Amino acid sequence: MKLKKQVTVCGGAIFCVAVFSLYLMLDRVQHDPARRQSAGNFPRSQISVLQNRIEQLEQLLEENHQIISHIKDSVLELTDTGAISPSGHLPFRSANGSWVLPFDGRPTFLSVQPLDCQFALGHRSQTDLQMLDVYSLLSFDNVDGGVWKQGFEITYEPNEWDDEPLQVFVVPHSHNDPGWIKTFDKYYNDQTQHIFNNIVVKLAEDPRRKFIWSEISFFAKWWESADVHKQEAMRKLILSGQLEIVTGGWVMTDEANVHYFAMIDQLIEGHQWLEKNLGVTPRSGWAVDPFGHSATMPYLLKRANMSSMLIQRVHYSIKKHFAATRSLEFMWRQTWDIESGTDMFCHMMPFYSYDVPHTCGPDPKICCQFDFKRLPGSRVNCPWKVPPRAITDANVAERAGVLLDQYRKKSKLFRSRVLLVPLGDDFRYDKPLEWDQQYFNYQKLFDYMNSHPEMHVKAQFATLTDYFNAVYKANGVAPGMRPPDYPVLSGDFFAYADREDHYWSGYYTSRPFYKNVDRVLESHLRGAEILYSLAVAHARRAGLEGRYPVSDYSLLTDARRNIGLFQHHDAITGTAKEAVVIDYGNRYLVLFNPVEQERLCVVTVLVNSARVRVLTEDGQTLPVQLSAQWVSAVEMSGEVYQASFMARLPALGLAVFHLYDSADSPMTLRSDTLLRIPGRGQSIRGLDPLPVRSQTVDAQPFYIQSQSLTLGFSGTTGLLESIRRKDDPQEVRVQIQFLTYGTRPSKDKSGAYLFLPDGNAKPYSQREAPVVRVVEGPLFAEVVAHYQHFQQTVRIHNVPGVDGLSLDITTMLDIRDQNNKELAMRLVTDIQSGDTFYTDLNGFQIQPRRYFQKLPLQAHFYPMPAMAYIQDSQYRLTLYTAQALGVSSLASGQLEVILDRRLMQDDNRGLGQGLKDNKRTANRFRLLLERRSSSGKVISFPSLLSHMTSTILNHEVLALPVLPWKHGVPPMRTFAPLAGTLPCDFHLLNLRSIQSLDTHSPSPYTALLLHRLGLDCGLEDQNPGFNCTTTQGQLSISGLFRGLDLQLLQPMSLSLMHSQPPLSNDSSINLEPMEISTYKLKLC
């Protein structure tokens, strides 16, 4: 009786909605001013409109009759079977062929406070240097500058330092890549461990010696095998200031392809290790080898309480301009910061490289003579054919004068009389002999300079922070503060070119297989972190903390460090996971939603039975769309099927579903499949219970639709042609094209790093037309186009909310039979975007880009870790990516992404090999078309819907099949850890268990990282299906987690090394838009 009542109520609700829809339709006809005419004055066009309206009403009536009929059928069915779907009836096809879903019965609400929209309307930060303006200003003409080829002649007057001597800080360093030409372990065993052993011995020989180190992954490996005496000696050198840890991340992270979650995670892992083992806190950032620099990095270092940073790989024309204007040191400010709260003091190295020939001054031929590892007899020499000479009493005066001349010339490029001179290169100082060669010879030079006042110089070994502190002192400001008259800069430094037109824009896409795997593993790691932290807290509350396996924490630590290693600039810069077919004789499926908002989505799993039935935890039967699993373009599997169902999942929670083989499952609905085949006589055979229709390809476009979207496809190519939103009468041209780039025929060719195309892209072509598969069903519809080197699937989900408002695009690539080819996907639209487009930086912020005629094609490709978009006054089209790739807009209305690259040669940047290890790779995207209601903003932000679309793409639902326990009782119940909803504009970046300082187990504390998103409210969203509001940045942590008490709430620096006084547990925290904050919690 109760069951029937529920069905009746639910059916009544659907009926009410249907009647209300009729009312709204009539209301529009009667009250629309555009339709109102005086009596006897109805033009034929208006009569035609009314006839169309009547036809629509008749169609809607027919649909509602069908709804009522289905409600009745469902009641009869459910009375017989004892099961009930959440809505009480099956999906069905309406008169126009579209699928109608059961009414979900759950109201949604979204409330964005007007004040929370003001941030995106604000002004751009006040800066002296904006990088887009700098690009507009420069000619990029590459004039020969003499000994400094990419610069200019530097002159000075000998008496310029009479009043204030030049202070020279020589900073010895060794750049150690954790995996490049050799593996991490091979590098460690062959070279890096010897560098650490030499540090311990050689720095102790003279207290004037200094050294810096950055990669904690190597440091941790050495520490684990070092004896207590070596550890103590190393600790003493750090505490005395002879050895400085710079940046202190697990690696020197890439800054183009990496997501900000991973940037932060590897920084925390390095800093946590330092805190536990050495008790030191890095104060300066050091990034000499990432191939271009992101504006995200200074923000993260600033929030980690560092005061200064150094960068190296910047376009040579920008370096020249900054050197000419003495702007190589600047305050780097975020574009949204209208004050100075994000300012980071940054030093840009002026010359070609970070090796010794390019760091003492403008003339590499002279500087190489002061790299004493290259003394005659060494395996390395100077390419300029003038070797170094050991410093003796006989030549020290002459040698010191020559070196000082370079120091002075370099110092003319800066605003202070303090000079930084790095002294090192890749894997340097691995032999004791080099330590003696460098330190003894330089000390003789320093002693001579310092003992001759007429030279007006003071030279010494130093750490990086020694140098920065001297700059601050010389300018009379505290560390991290802006020195007087130093410029403020906003923007980033992509794309990087080191010489001529050699742009390092190829590595944005190189090895996309691994870029995809990296992003999947990041999502899994984040999910594991959150669930582990919650599990430990609940175990602690239940008094079971001692029984919770500590070994799991070690696994979590290993995962953090392995993913951290992959963020290194030679790793991530380099498929879909294999699906597991589950034997659903009688199994439970646990779904984890790693997103902080409740989620309504379509979940697809592979099953080995066509008679699968899906029940919720409380026994309600869900509609299932059964589809074929295809083994080729025209052959389906007879053993594996796709089962898709709609699931509502709690925020950051687990939901349990029961899957079993049912002889009679009326809730399982088969997909309708049509194969569009070129006229070549292929035999098509469907397999029971999934019949297949076929037709010969024709040129007429065809369409698929959902409750939110209608997509048009080319009848010839099977590729997307148009998008129409259901709330918009206008069909927007969005045409997908595939193209190929070759590489230039000259000596310099494209390789792993460089993109050097042989001209504009050429259309991809193949002899035979593609086989196109059209699949339609109640939960999704898709079009799959099979080409020789790729297979593209465009799917739309027929569900309300975020999952149903964008296109899900998967492109499966296999270019292993190609030579020197790069495959690109181009979107061609009618959007009047002009020469401007937008890309994200590390998934954290949006950076405007501009097409410049004066730059070569390859200069216009930028990293796309998460999204890129074009827009005009009416529309914004955003392409979201689940893996970092290179993107551009080479003409108005276009977006283009490089999908894969196969290159047969090295590009002479040190790798020594081409890109020939391609794999079959799945590149996954989402495509969202939004209407704009306002334009002309100086700074651009994604909409709330846009943020969520990116989130659901990068944090897919995780499906965990488990066996049932004890007589079919599920092993767990639904787990909804949040007591309420987070504000719509809050992203829970991580909930990370903090390590214990004395064991390998977790401490009682958890790190909560929150990011408040910057929103553009000027886009007209369809109903995104959210159940949340914005709160002007306010959030109460004490009531956030269901069943857990908050015992500590303490604000921390980003990487947990610096703390502020604890807040009262019932305090509300406040976040400004775009800010990331870290809190130490104790939950129990």
TrEMBL record:
Question: EC annotation?
Answer: 3.2.1.114
Tell me where the transmembrane regions lie: 7-26
Record-annotated Glycoside hydrolase family 38 central domain positions: 502-588
Classify the source by domain of life.
Answer: Eukaryota
Span of the secretion signal? none
The cofactor(s) it depends on are: Zn(2+)
Give the InterPro entries listed for this entry. Gal_mutarotase_sf_dom, Glyco_hydro/deAcase_b/a-brl, Glyco_hydro_38_C, Glyco_hydro_38_cen, Glyco_hydro_38_cen_sf, Glyco_hydro_38_N, Glyco_hydro_38_N_sf, Glyco_hydro_57/38_cen_sf
Tell me what topology the record assigns in the membrane.
Single-pass type II membrane protein
Enzyme class, UniProt record, top EC level: hydrolase
Q: What is the reaction catalyzed?
A: N(4)-{beta-D-GlcNAc-(1->2)-alpha-D-Man-(1->3)-[alpha-D-Man-(1->3)-[alpha-D-Man-(1->6)]-alpha-D-Man-(1->6)]-beta-D-Man-(1->4)-beta-D-GlcNAc-(1->4)-beta-D-GlcNAc}-L-asparaginyl-[protein] + 2 H2O = 2 alpha-D-mannopyranose + an N(4)-{beta-D-GlcNAc-(1->2)-alpha-D-Man-(1->3)-[alpha-D-Man-(1->6)]-beta-D-Man-(1->4)-beta-D-GlcNAc-(1->4)-beta-D-GlcNAc}-L-asparaginyl-[protein]
* Entry keywords, A to Z: Disulfide bond, Glycosidase, Golgi apparatus, Hydrolase, Membrane, Metal-binding, Signal-anchor, Transmembrane, Transmembrane helix, Zinc
The metabolic or biological pathway listed in the UniProt record of this protein is:
Protein modification; protein glycosylation
GO CC, alphabetical: Golgi membrane
Q: Name one GO molecular function term.
A: carbohydrate binding
Subcellular localization(s) per the UniProt record = Golgi apparatus membrane
Function description: Catalyzes the first committed step in the biosynthesis of complex N-glycans. It controls conversion of high mannose to complex N-glycans; the final hydrolytic step in the N-glycan maturation pathway.
Give the similarity note. Belongs to the glycosyl hydrolase 38 family.
Q: Which PANTHER family does UniProt cross-reference here?
A: ALPHA-MANNOSIDASE, ALPHA-MANNOSIDASE 2X
Q: What is this protein called?
A: mannosyl-oligosaccharide 1,3-1,6-alpha-mannosidase
Organism name: Sinocyclocheilus anshuiensis
Q: Please name the gene that encodes this protein.
A: man2a2
